Amino acid sequence: GDESAEERKAREEEAASRKLAADLAAEVAKRRNFAIISHPDAGKTTLTEKLLLYGGAIHEAGAVKARRASRHATSDWMAMEQQRGISITSTAMVFETKGHSITLLDTPGHADFGEDTYRTLAAADNAVMLVDAGKGLEPQTRKLFEVCRMRKLPVFTFMNKLDRPAKEPLELLDEIEKEFALQTYPVNWPIGSGDRFVGVYHRPRKEVHLFQRDASHGSREIISTVLAGDDPTLKDIIEPDLYEQLQEELELLEELTPPLDMDRVRSGDLSPVFFGSAMNNFGVELFLESFLGYAVPPKAYESSRGEISPEYPHFTGFVFKLQANMDPRHRDKVAFVRVCSGQFEKGMKVQLARTGKTIALTRPQKLFAQERSTMETGFAGDVIGLNNPNAFAIGDTIFSGPRLAYPAIPCFSPELFMYIKNPNPSKYKQFQKGISELLGEGAVQVLYSMDPGQTNPILAAVGQLQFEVVQHRMQSEYNVDTTLEPIGYTVARWVVGGWDALEKVGRLYNCATVKDMWGRPVLLFRNDWNVSQLLNDNPEIGELAPYSLPP
Ligand code: GDP
């Protein structure tokens, strides 16, 4: 037929946009991104190492160990920061396996636990909850789980250290179900634990994977012996009481556990559970294989323009973490961006939603194991590190198409409170500047006393290290020596009804009223018990929230 130039152009444009959509869909389908949540010492470093080993990113486990050794003492951390910058691996690791590109977002633990740990979960599509099977649920796991719940992340549970005496598996599942109101689906089931740990029964394939103590301490991949679940030799391998217990428990599981409903897994209401021993490389490969099958690919994000799918043709993303001084040679600051849609390209120009300014993304970095290398492209689910000093704040949206913004990342309930003081009046200006810049960067939260005589800001943190970082940076970047004075509160709650709600109830006992950086009322309590007591005595105050979104 006769096609006009316009028609031809329209046809070509449509073909191009179809091709782009198909390309994006293919890239997105390959990607899986997750964060590990756990309490210190549950074995996160060990599991990370083993996942990277199976993922082929490192051939000899141990590469991640340098981090472990260096992060126990805060002083080491500071020294490390000064000498060579914080390892970029502390934010994201990427590895490719079985046709998937996997991004493991690191959630700092131990002394470096801070708000970054929570914010990282804003960039994650899936969470792996790592539990020490000898101990069950622990405080840090509980806190991080709350964030996963709030974000409706699918949660995959790995019960670790089965080579050591463990709690009964049914008891472990029960803890999760009761405390987290999260149903569980054991994908595999342990046979004994500690010295009597025989292996796991893998339910989907009805196989027994036999545990082999690993003399190399798991620095190499181990191929474990696999037998069919009805193999008659199992009776010779497994001691009679354990064998009988296994049969009973498997029957019980068939009766009690709901089917593995993937919709409920994806919505974060049902957690597939795995048992193993990261240190012995046991159960890790089995976990990785199932995880890749169950985990969700990069998801759609809510935005001011509605839901943005990962295949949306324009590049969009948001800043979830800022890290200063990574490279001491030039005091740079890296903004870590979660790509939400479209294709990121080296050198591209984007707009910053907060200011409307155009920014050229000049020095993008790909995050791979222990190296920094320049990244050429990126798709939804990827994390990119940008060197655009001072351009970004936590939660900033960047986009290349029509204007849009992603919701702010919530402030998380701080648990440690200190007045920060500047003993030297001649440093007043630097002090104010430093506090407001570190605040803007999200290094720490700042609250203000309602007492007009108290002009010192209150630093509010979730981890001790945040204070030390603030003091250190106030000294090195703003040349102000500060002092800290602890305040005896441990719980903060935002008054959802605002000042009006507070006025209604009148005088409050056993708490202090302060305001956040946006002037909203926050109550500080000595403990959780005082929170419930206040709610009991003053129901008309309405909701007290542990998290809050910037207005
Ligand atoms: P993280 O603090 O969660 O990163 O924990 P690490 O990976 O550093 O492990 C804490 C300790 O537990 C180390 O001494 C590990 O060797 C040990 N560990 C990790 N996984 C296992 C395991 O499967 N079995 C045993 N027995 N120990 C383990």
UniProtKB/TrEMBL annotation:
- Record GO terms (molecular function): GTP binding; GTPase activity; translation release factor activity, codon nonspecific
Keywords in alphabetical order: Cytoplasm, GTP-binding, Nucleotide-binding, Protein biosynthesis
Q: What is its main location?
A: cytoplasm
Location of the Tr-type G domain? 29-299
Residue stretches of biased makeup (Basic and acidic residues): 6-16
Which Gene Ontology CC terms are recorded? cytosol
Its name, as the record gives it, is Peptide chain release factor 3
> What stretch of the complete protein does the chain hold?
203 to 753 of 757
